[in-house]
Amino acid sequence: MKTLLKLEEFTQFILTTYLFYQLGFAWWLFPALILLPDLSMVCYLITPYWGAVSYNFIHHKALAICIYSIGVYTNDSTLMALGLILFAHSAMDRIFEYGLKYTNSFKNTHLSVIGK
To answer: What are the pLDDT digits (tens) for 87-105?
Structure first.
């Protein structure tokens, strides 16, 4: 089952990468921005609770879809690109089993315990 889920996430990552390039931005922007959503982890410096809340908000695919949809509705390619980066990053994280976080520990995710 894990392999099937990783394949699904990989397919989503490839699709969002393709859609990003269709927007006409420079090719180097995608790799330059792909790790940007991980800045949400800085809230772990406050507490694991706020770190998880921040991380989960930014890494939730519904947020990415909403931002992308607003970009489509307003014909704003920057918002579309931001939504695609968020979605691709979340898919990439799930490929490597970095899922949404529980509030008790960064290593405790909805997919597994990181490092086990």
So the answer is: 999 999 999 988 888 888 7
